[in-house]
Amino acid sequence: MTLVKRLAYVEIEASDLERWTVFGRDVFGCELAKDSTADCLQFRIDARPWRIQVSRGARDDLKVIGLEVAGREALLEMCARLERADHPFRMATREECEARGVYEMCLLTDPSGIDVEVCYGSLLQPQQPFCAAVGHGGFITGEQGLGHLMLVVDDPLRVQQFYGRIMGFVTSDYVSTKNYGGLAGDFIFMRCNPRHHTLAFGRLPVPRRLGHLMLQVHRIDDVGLTLDRVHEHGFRQTRSIGRHVNDNMFSFYCESPSKIQFECGWGGLEMSEDDDDVKLFDVTSVWGHKHL
User: Fold this and answer.
1) Cα angle for residues 24, 53, 249 (degrees, 5° grid)
2) pLDDT in tens, 6-25
3) Which CATH superfamily is domain 4-120 in?
4) Which DSSP symbol is given to 37?
């Protein structure tokens, strides 16, 4: 049974919040939430109070993943699965829930050492419509959640088993390539809603847990306009525009102030419950996505 419904939010710890303000607001078109401070930035991309939190610190990496279930019954089932697997967790305090804008949640660390918060009852603020800082057609969220994450882990198969058996994620496909920027790469892609993958796992020679975060836009032109702003504001494009082989995403990649890559995408494949054939590919992209 798929318990997790979507990626709700992420927290990133970063050392240069001033540049992150420019990157999130002026490049990617996120709205800087009114409760942001000099030491904690909160970025909106829809009617939620925030989806990406960037807090000041030396880590320059992913700090927390927030995953959303439907309600209390699903959260209790998640806790029961964790107990049966003898995997530690604890219930969050009311103050912790309020800080995340959720009704209730449990806290745990996954087998790769990444902190995970499983929540339900996410606060919505339709009375405060999302307002991009630049001309923008908005982001695809809703039932598909924030976007997708590529996580760098030491044992991808072990992590896949955890998110499959405990969280209910479904494997979409595998990519095993001999040329990922000149290196061999093996990646596992898993979904929990129509988005082709919400989480992907791979073993990469990078000194951080978050390989990249993808945000999907409604309009293809916003991919190009975002790329223009990447160069206008002095950020580094890391992969050229291309089309991914598995999720059909038309996208490019660039480097955030924390060296974490962000992917700006359009046109991603949506899966149905009947799409139960797990596939294998030997390249990451049909064309493009050259490492720069």
Assistant:
1) 55
2) 999 999 999 999 999 999 99
3) 2,3-Dihydroxybiphenyl 1,2-Dioxygenase, domain 1 (3.10.180.10)
4) B
